[in-house]
Please model this.
Amino acid sequence: MKLKKSLSLIRLFVSYAWECKASYFIFFIADIVLNAVSPFITIIFPALVIDELTGQRRPEYIVMYVACTVALQYAVSAVRGVIGLTKEKYADLYNRYLQMKLAKKCVDMDFQHTEDKAVLEQLEKAKTGIEWYSGGISGILDTFGAILTHTVTLLGTAALVINGAPILIAVYAVCITVQAVCRYYVQKINHEHFLKLSKENRAFGYMFWELANIRFGKDIRLYGAEQTIEDKCRASIRSQANIWKGQAMSCMPYDLASVPFTAGRYFAELFILGKKALGGAISIGSFTMYMNASNTFGQSLQNIIWCIQRLHSSLAYINEFVVFMEYPNAVHHGSLHPDNSAEHTIEFRNVSFTYPHTDVQVLKNINVVLHSGEHISVVGLNGAGKTTFIKLLCRLYDPTNGQILLDGTDIREYVYEEYVKLISVVFQDFELFAFTARENVTLTESHAKTEDVRENEEKHESIFKAEECAVADDEKFDRVIRQAGLSEAVAKLKYGADTFIMKGFDHGGSEMSGGEQQKLAIARALYKDAPVVILDEPTAALDPIAEYEIYRQFNTLVDGKTAIYISHRLSSCRFCDIIYVFVDGEIKERGTHAELAAVEGGHYARMFAAQAQYYK
Model:
């Protein structure tokens, strides 16, 4: 990594530290000063004690030197202990700060990236880069601080070494240079293997963390999947172990090569300074002082080089975080603002689409005009391109060819966040969160309390007395819950709308039925109150009659809005203004239910004939 890039990264993470908690730098500077001066306590005072013992032997001086040594060491150790504990707290705070930045980037980045293998592997590199290898913000700053500390110590001990045995400077330079070269290659090997491990770490995380999720429990037990999962876990461990083994074997020659030079450095110190002491050139106390000074000088020089290398290596690891944070947009982000009007016309003009890193065209030359207030049904068999059509409409992807126009303007020219406010969607694989029922609908913080907190409130009322429960819009929430047919179900929950859904974080939570969860997702779409509402097969698990009833009811609720119903079944078609029939990524037929059902041998007519028994 080039010096300019390294300095840029240091400035970036210093700014992160300052932004998160600027008071850290008080302890940072204090730590540097204490670590820099503390070695001189054990260099100077023991030498004074020894000279006094071998010279005039004045008890008061001996006691004074020993007392100073003990008092200074104790004071420095105590203060360093406090600083160390405080910095540990900052390290945890900074780690969470970076994790929050990663999480926000994952939420804010274009959806296309979330299905891209390369992006997911870069995310894994970013996570491990800031956690395992670099130490995050505090790791970078501590290493940089260590360089400053050792530099101050080096300058002070250099003056003593030059005065006592200047030739040792050359010895240290040779030995430490060789060791630094060896360490450079070791760190290079470590980083190469770190990049190889990103894929394996993702697999490891899935095997040992994702599969531990209780939602897999039923399938694992009923299908006897324990052995298969265990085998895959063992394979993941073996794969990682092989990478670690390769890393260790590659580093070993360099580690062994540096050992003789460490021993040679200590031998040179003893030989040169011992010869001077035996010859009477220096006293025993001075011998001790110069030995300690030379050891500290050599260690400081070595530490400076090693810290520079470690900083370089840490910056290379943490740069993976920066690479992920700077991932370019996958879709174009415009600057125009959509009209605030509730009426909009959306047009697909010659739209074709191929998913990234594939060569299969999922949509082919789609031409559709969605007029404001229309109720539209998009039907077709699985894999016909229906959901992809919706993903393009929601700007989760941009078309490969053609345009999607909102009121005559390409949707890519609009501010993304403003455009998506126009659309509410309930996908087939909709997600509910381990939040309260209210929060799942409003997606607004309500400060609801878990059962544990409620129990503590009863025992320690004064502690929690000031905590209030604020909600978003009660009237609107109650209305959409009623429209979705959930009023009775929510009223029966232990704490009403403030009951947590799922029991992952609250043993007082409620596991809602599948139908209730679907209605909750529909209530969320109604609460957003967007002019375009989409149901993308959220009821696919229901039988055709139940699906028809939900679609019929929802069709009434969104009267006046543009509504799009996606299904491979035809329960949504009879009350829609127009039906589009997707076959192999193309629109093969379009028209009303009556028109399409009358087309002899048509795709829709055949599908309807096959399903008609369910709708009589």
Notes: The chain has 21 helices and ten strands. Residues 528 and 537 are 19 Å apart (CA to CA).
